[in-house]
Amino acid sequence: MKKRVVVVGAGIMGLSTAFHLAKRGCTDVLVVDRGYLCGGASGRNGGGVRAQFSTETNIRLMQESIAICRDFAAAMKINVWFRQGGYLFLARTPERARDLEASCALQTRCGLPTRLLEPSEARGIVPELDPSGVLLASFNPEDGVLFPWPFLWGYARAARDLGVELATFQEVVGFEREGGRVTAVRLCRTTPGEAPERTREESLVRCDEVVLCTGAWSPEVARLAGVSLPNHPHRHEICSTEPLKPWLGPLVADLTDGLYFSQSMRGEIVGGISVEPVPDGIDQRSSRQFLARYARSLVRAVPRLAGVKVLRQWAGCYDLTPDANPIVGRVDDPENLTLACGFMGHGFMMGPVFGRLLAEHVLTGERSALFQRWSLERYRTGELLTETMIIG
Amino acid sequence: MTSRVLVCRCEDVTLDEVEEALAGGATDLESLKRYTGFGTGWCQGKQCVVACARLLEARTGAAPPAPITPRPPLHPVPLGLLAGLPDPEEAP
Ligand SMILES: Cc1cc2nc3c(=O)[nH]c(=O)nc-3n(C[C@H](O)[C@H](O)[C@H](O)COP(=O)(O)OP(=O)(O)OC[C@H]3O[C@@H](n4cnc5c(N)ncnc54)[C@H](O)[C@@H]3O)c2cc1C
Q: Best label site of A149, A193, A250, B70, fewest CB within 10 Å?
């Protein structure tokens, strides 16, 4: 088989990119994934979508992503349960409060309606919140939450309708190289199930371009192509409760201990918290320690939730970079390999806007200011970046 | 959507919806779960997973699939109770 572009990974990044490639007329695209759709972080996340960041790059990108989310159901003919109830950030230390002040000022300059709130004012937005210990809060009413699964189905269906081929249970196990280029990807069929295992069925797909959208798996997949990446997987756990009638407007995020929770359109309270240390590498197991820590912090923030029952917990992996910013774009060697990884714990919300930018980058080869900024190269030149609005 | 035969009562998934998902290529249990949402409600699959697995087997002719990965807790547990669990990693 020969394809113009092979996209590795069918999470939000891969599917959004494939859709935008096809929309621009490049339909000779194959998307492969070693597991089922929604098996990676894109099917395991909290569905939070926000423009409250501390860098102009992230704020601007997310302004566009939020607009896409708002129109997604109508444009893609699928309900993604998007609800703009805002994000309410809480700071419990003077340092975190200063971060909030600085990022709120920047967001205002970018045209966001974000405002700083005293703890008592935060109660105006979530009356059930116990604000003791909170020094400062910030609120952007345009942020929101969505249900990740249908978002992926929407992109997958639209990409297929345009001619993109999507193959699940196909793992990339190697790359064929010639000089400074990848000439083919080596695939191995995997068995269905949550932990896909390789079979003996291998195949080779020749291609002109490879795009790695493998999230937390990126270091191990890039290594197969001879590319060494500085990011690493970091387990992040999450859970959801029994459904309740709608009462919680925003997603509430505490920048101090990484607690966050929101109410989905299905009524469940979905949330998580940071737990350290975590096992090395890709690990998607759940722990009781997480439940205890999450429950303690959540019940402190909203005492009335004590009687509400947890139905299910699961885990996925964040894709952490040393400077909390993504690693994207073409690498030097092999020259036809493009990366889109390192999106920390906020890559789902970046998918809608970033897929378009990545498709343009792949097709034109142009390195815009954003692709310069987020290049792998920066770790060699030492031009590291920052972002303080990181949850977990 | 005419059938009112419920396969998953918690999440209101009908037989027709499962058939549609199977026809659309969700031919393994994890994909079927993600596409229809069966097994993600109150009973966490205790009532519906067998029905879905049998349908899958009948329609695809494949060997019986392994169950979906169970998600803890086994039964719903109140947050207030969980908040009282000891945390070995935290200083007293
Ligand atoms: C618990 C949790 C909560 C989160 N909450 C949020 C949130 O509220 N908002 C938000 O925006 N983000 C959130 N995130 C982060 C977000 O989920 C990720 O940043 C995003 O989904 C990454 O998308 P992706 O497409 O790059 O990667 P993934 O969705 O992980 O997709 C990568 C895919 O590559 C496949 N793959 C790996 N290796 C191979 C191979 N060798 N061959 C073929 N395929 C391969 C995998 O099977 C996987 O499907 C959260 C993450 C977690 C874990």
A: B70
Are residues A371 and A332 located together in one domain of the fold?
yes
Considering only the beta carbons, identify the residue of A277, A299, A313 that sits closest to B80.
Answer: A299
Residues A91, A223 share a domain: no
Give the SS3 label for residue A142: coil
For chain A, what is the domain count? 2
Look up residue A352 and give its amino acid. P
Contact B73 A310 (CB under 8 A): yes
CA distances in angstroms from B18 to A225, B7, B38, listed in the order given: 40, 8, 9
Contact assignment for B31 to A293 by CB distance below 8 Å: no
Domains along chain B with CATH numbers: 2-83 (1.10.10.1100)
Is B77's Cβ below 8 Å from some Cβ in A? Answer: yes
pLDDT digits (tens), chain B, 92 positions? 567 899 999 999 999 999 999 998 898 999 999 999 999 999 999 999 999 999 999 998 888 888 888 899 999 999 999 999 987 665 44
Owning domain of residue A357: 2-45+149-231+322-381
Does the beta carbon of B90 lie under 8 angstroms from any beta carbon of chain A? yes
Q: What pTM was computed for the model?
A: 0.96
> In Å, what is the CA distance from A137 to each residue of A109, A114, A345, A385, B54?
18, 10, 21, 25, 51
